[in-house]
Amino acid sequence: MAKIKIQKKDIWIDMTPMSDVMTLLLCFFMLTSTFLTPEPVSVTAPNSVSEVKIPEQDVLNILVTPEGRIYCGTENKNNMQAMMETMTDKFGVQLNATQVKHFREDAMVGAPMAQLANYLNLDPEKMGEAIQKLGLPLDSINGGKSEFQEWVSAAREANPDIKLAIKCDSKTSYGTIKKLMSELQDMNENRFQLITNLDVKRLND
């Protein structure tokens, strides 16, 4: 008895709908994602069990390294430029177009005003190295505000609704943190948030 041969048919699956879905998902994540600006120095925040989230907009981030160097900046580049214009006018610092461009591309302010122009003259790669050894001075100028306080005032002038968030390293000395907070309180900036890492282990205990 002859065997019946079953004709084999190729299976074809239309992948067009799947590729369309993947493209839409990719576009969605690209449009809704927030890209974080890299910090100029590495800071490891202490752990805590606080689950309060820092706002994503209108925030002046204040960074404090283990050595006590202080940096500040905001994600809004227009506010950063307004701060720069206020400070350069106040201190009589002239910046050219290239220096202004480097300032806008920088993550945070960290150079004293006396060194700002020379710092912004560097190539972007060398700026990253130089910023590690700088920081905003906390010493008062002629009995008035310090440069750090002046930058905070410039940020408040650029955006009256701006909020302050402080990120200190877990190894930063208590004296530095106390002095920083005292300078903010002297300006009547009594509301600020401390950025910490969520300690999941302690939270679950």
Polypeptide structure, described:
The protein is α/β, with parallel strands linked by helices and 205 residues long. It is 42% helix and 11% strand. It has eight helices and six strands.
In angstroms, what is the radius of gyration? 25 Å
Describe the main β-sheet briefly.
Answer: 4 strands, mixed
Number of strands: 6
Total number of helical segments? Answer: 8
User: Helix and strand string, N-terminal first?
Assistant: HEEEHHHHHEHEEH
What portion of the residues fall into strands of 2 or more residues? 5-15%
Low-confidence stretches: none
In short:
By secondary structure, this protein is α/β, with parallel strands linked by helices. The chain is 42% helix and 11% strand. It is elongated, with a radius of gyration of 25 Å.
Defining traits:
single chain; 205 residues; alpha/beta; four-stranded mixed β-sheet; two-stranded parallel sheet
Question: Which helices and strands appear, and what pairs or packs with what?
Answer:
Layout: H1 16-32, E1 47-48, E2 59-64, E3 70-73, H2 77-91, H3 97-105, H4 113-120, H5 124-130, H6 147-158, E4 163-168, H7 174-186, E5 193-194, E6 197-198, H8 200-204
Helix pairs in contact: 2-3, 2-6
